[in-house]
Amino acid sequence: MRSLAVVLTLLFCGCPTASLPKPDGGNSQPDEDAGIACPEGFIEFPLIDFGCVARGDSALISQTDTFSLTPGLPTSPEFTVDGPSIRFAPTEERDVQATLLFFKGPCVLGRQRLRGTGVGQVMSWTPALVDFGYVNPGSTRTSSVTFKSCSLQPVPIGQLVTREGTSPSNTFGVDAGSLTIPAATRDAVTGAIIDAEQRLDLSFTPAVNGPRQGQLVGATMLATQSVISVQLRGVGGGPIIEVMPSTLDFGAVTMATTQLITIRNVGTRPTPADPRANLHLGVDGGPPFFELAPALCGSVAMSAYDPVDGIDTTGSVTLSVTLQPAAMPRTCTLHVFSNDPNRPDVEVAITAQ
Question: What residues pair up with 149 in beta bridges, in sequence order?
Fold first, then answer.
């Protein structure tokens, strides 16, 4: 079991003689069971916050005692004193607070307030499964995973690699071999711990068609999470957009004139069929599906299109481009947006006299 060691130095306080404060901070008479305050005065040592610690793990704080003080028993059994150290080993998922008195001989010299939060796990990540979707062989799609930690100490993650089974993966990639999640913080008002986050970039570059599965693995110093494994998934194959023709020349426009553009998916069709592998028009699967620039150049109408299913390898969509007569020559650009990672914005040049 690994422990987190922090050194706390107890300094001498030349305070005047005072009675032992109550736990509520009042200046009343000493507790009967605590004894009397030492002549040197009573020291209120700073709060020790162990932060979040997973059940089954523990955090350890070592003290350098310049007074040869004798600690009493913490008021919660989840805190224990072992020689010069204090250990927090939570048994439940809850916030725990306690008080520890320090004695010099028969008198009480000071008090230490202790706090820790028991949790199921210190570290988590989202998403639990990184799904790259469909990517054509030779192309690369990037994604990311975000690690979170509630520890008040930074949490390093090392030996980060991608694997397929027990073998290193050339299909899934990781941006760095290590990272450190920053220290979390505790809200001064609510007492809640605010998770710290660190993002890690990943990639998927299939060499052939077909599904692939892998893992991102790494190692930490957390006793209950010494090894992390993030599931990865992707499929080789997917949409390839074809826009024909790639240019439209209307010539001299003396009356309303329309020309057609056909959009097809010339990519792969998985078995069984999966709409995620289809060509989906638009930005992030939604409108705008296309854009004419400048907008006053003409008008564009699209044939029937289902944004849920998209366009499989047997279907097509037609765009009708209509121009009206104008006093001057025109040069316009029609942008067709899709989920083809290599050609997300296909441009069609339009000219007219």
Answer: 123, 196
